[in-house]
Design a protein that fits this description.
Number of helices: 2
Largest sheet: none
Helix content: 40-55%
Length: 47
């Protein structure tokens, strides 16, 4: 039986997430949102 991706996902430690937010590295945006921001800023970049 094939395994699910979610079976291999390790939860992000809450303390690390809070530290990243406090240090300004991450504001809780999803990866998709961050990728969209980069794509919008660089529309002529190769895919």
């Amino acid at each position: 039986m094939p395994s699910r991706i979610s079976d291999h996902v390790v939860p992000w430690p809450e303390a690390e997430a809070k530290r990243y937010v406090a240090e300004g590295y991450w504001a809780g945006a999803s990866l998709g949102h961050l990728l969209r921001q980069v794509a919008d800023r660089t529309p002529d970049a190769p895919p």
